[in-house]
Design goal:
This protein is of the alpha/beta class. It folds into 2 domains: about 150 residues, HAD superfamily/HAD-like (Rossmann fold); about 80 residues, Orthogonal Bundle (DNA polymerase, domain 1). About 50% of the residues lie in helices and about 15% in strands. Helix 9 links the parallel strand 6 and strand 7.
């Protein structure tokens, strides 16, 4: 890293991680369930297309939820709404039981192998915090039963009453952690999360595992890496 970047990161003592899509492999975990669902219905709908629509719509549901400020619906509820919308969009007739069966996949997510390895290497030198849009009970379940790496804190957007990238989420996390924002580094595989964190004074690492083009913005990541092991190796070198 450039000297200027090292200077900016000198005070970082806490790494704050997005979970969905960064630590947890959403597509690898949920697509098999969708494929089985589509196959059982004997429909021509493509599972990959349905999954892409579901994820895109979920983001819209979350943005609308925060922007309208009518009360925080919670992660799984916005997931459910997005799924129902996407099924209707694709002309798929489904029952409440079908929707519930697909939604169960969110409790059985599998982490990326490099994420588990990297988190294990980063524990100790840094305080590790999960900061996610997920419901608090869901995050605690996934951390304990699926990721199985001890985090120092698990913070849900529920605490702030809004979804990332609303500034309230990052500011609430800093308050809960009793930390100045510049001591926190957001680690995510989604650009919107990093932009939101940087706008609130956090440092940022972009895990470029989905080849998503970073937006044209002044809120750039300090570090760009391909996976968690690369990040752990880089930060270990900087700490020596």
């Amino acid at each position: 890293m450039a000297t200027t970047t090292v200077d900016r990161l000198r005070h970082v003592d806490t790494l704050v991680f997005d979970l969905f899509g960064t630590v947890l492999d959403l597509s690898g975990s949920i697509l098999p369930t969708i494929r089985q669902f589509v196959e059982n219905l004997d429909t021509s709908v493509d599972a990959v297309t349905l999954w892409a629509k579901w994820r895109d719509r979920q983001r819209i549901e979350q943005y609308q939820d925060s922007l309208l400020a009518v009360g925080h619906s919670g992660y799984l509820e916005t997931c459910r709404r997005a799924l129902v919308y996407s099924l209707r969009w694709e002309g798929v007739e489904s029952s409440e039981g079908d929707v519930a069966e697909l939604m169960r996949a969110w409790t059985e997510l599998t982490p990326f192998k490099d994420a588990v390895e990297g988190l294990g290497r980063l524990a100790g030198p840094y305080r590790l915090v999960a900061l996610s849009n997920g419901d608090q009970w869901l995050l605690e379940h996934l951390v304990k039963e699926r990721i199985k790496v001890p985090f120092d804190a698990v913070i849900s957007a529920d605490t702030a009453g809004a979804f990332k990238p609303h500034p309230a989420v990052y500011r609430t996390a800093a308050r809960v952690l009793e930390s100045e924002p510049n001591r926190l580094m957001m680690v995510a595989a989604h650009t919107f999360d990093l932009i939101g964190a940087r706008a609130c004074g956090y440092r940022a690492t972009y895990i470029d595992r989905h080849a998503i083009q970073f937006e044209e913005t002044i809120y750039r990541p300090d570090i760009v890496v391909g996976d968690f092991n690369e990040l752990a190796m880089l930060l270990a070198g900087e700490r020596q």
